[in-house]
Amino acid sequence: MAAAIENEPIYFNPWDEAYRANPYPYYAPLYRRPPHLMNLFIPMALVARHADCAAILRDYENFSSVPPMSPFLEQRLAVFGTAPRVVFSDPPVHTRLRKLVSKAFTPRRIRDLEPRIREIAASLMAKAKANGKFEVMADLANPLPVMVISEMLGIEARDYENFKHWSDVVVESDMIPPGVPLPDRVKESFGALRAFFIEEIERRRREPGDDLVSAMVSARDDADALTEEELIAFVVLLLMAGNETTTNLIGNGMLALGRNPDQLELLRTHPELTPRAIEEMLRYDCPVQSAARYPKHDVVIDGVEIKVNTPTFIIVAAANRDPEKFDHPERFEITRDPNEHLAFGDGIHFCLGASLARMEGAIAISTTLQTFPRLKLSNPDAPLTYKGSYFLRGLSSLTMAVD
């Protein structure tokens, strides 16, 4: 039996469109074995079991979030800059950055956003109702998060569409294989984002307001402050992470409800289950499929040696369906409790915007069900199209029937 499991074929190819459309069947063989070593453009390790993923995410002393220098990374640094980013840093740099930027994400600031998020969601759904149809991504999942994060940043409404376009193009760069130059459209989009925020940051220095950019400009700790490049890097990351992941939570969540009409009806009749439903959406079809870590020295996990600096893919979406952790993991059950998923990561890199994402998702889903009480998938068997990133899993479109 052990030999059969060891010889079971493993397929992992995030550059394969069919794989991106439904990676979950390919995760199954990874649960029955220790980390899997393979070579896809570069040597790498795949980690899928919940216990292993959680342990590595917490273990910043042995697994770095900073990718080792390579021609692939040098190309990206030439475009995106060398300023440290809170997501791709280790202590003490991470400790310093996280302490400064967390001042912009206080519980009070997040709570104060709730009335405005409800207002935006209600407005978007009123437009969809007036049109007599509902395209989840175009009508709600795409505009809501970018409008919220843009308002948080103090950005004018006229720039929302540009922001969404720039963000989408930069996110697609995730799927450029090593050795392939970044397309000009990626460089141009990032350049446009950077130039925009340089001007906005300078304006906030002259005329500070009650927005996140102003808060970040003034964020200090014992005379320490973000450099301009660190500030630009964080604001750009915030724009992309703050809208793309929440967009995918809403879209993937609505799809899960549509494919499970019993759970949709349960949520419609018991709206108090919305918080649990959001957690199950995060677990069942994770907006972030995988994160990367890099061993600081040779490590051994369950008998498998992973060499220093080997890119180690922590497949959190697989961990969230690990049968050793979750009963009937392939079922979408909005009453699931406990639900210790890893959708927001774990340890020192636990997502800074988790509470905001949960709030936006809950408001979006509840407003949708209130607006369209007879909501269902237009065609449950229709093929789905996903955007061009495996790591940030999200639909291009999703049409639902409202009558």
Describe the structure.
The protein has a single domain (about 1-400), classed as Orthogonal Bundle (Cytochrome p450), CATH 1.10.630. Mean pLDDT is about 90; it is low at about 1-5. It is about 50% helix and about 10% strand. Strand 5 (about 220) and strand 6 form a beta hairpin. The strands form 4 sheets. Strands 1-2-10-7-3 form a 5-stranded mixed sheet, with helices on one face. The protein is globular, with a radius of gyration of 21 Å. The chain has about 400 residues and is of the alpha+beta class.
List keywords for this structure.
single chain; alpha+beta; 403 residues; 50% helix; globular
Known CATH architecture: Orthogonal Bundle
- Structural class computed from helices and strand pairing: alpha+beta
Spatial gap, N to C terminus: 52 Å
- Please give the share of residues in helix: 40-55%
* Overall average pLDDT: 91
Strand order of the main beta sheet, please? 1-2-10-7-3
| The CATH C-level class name | Mainly Alpha
| C-alpha Rg (nearest Å) | 21 Å
Short description:
With 403 residues, the chain is an alpha+beta fold. 50% of the residues lie in helices and 9% in strands.
Q: How is this fold's topology laid out?
A:
Elements: H1 2-7, H2 17-21, H3 24-27, E1 36-40, E2 42-47, H4 50-58, E3 63-64, H5 71-80, H6 93-101, H7 107-131, E4 134-135, H8 136-141, H9 143-152, H10 160-172, H11 184-206, H12 212-218, E5 220-221, E6 224-225, H13 228-259, H14 261-269, H15 274-284, E7 291-295, E8 299-301, E9 304-306, E10 312-314, H16 316-319, H17 354-371, E11 376-377, E12 399-401
Parallel strand pairs: 2-10
Antiparallel strand pairs: 1-2, 3-7, 4-12, 5-6, 7-10, 8-9, 11-12
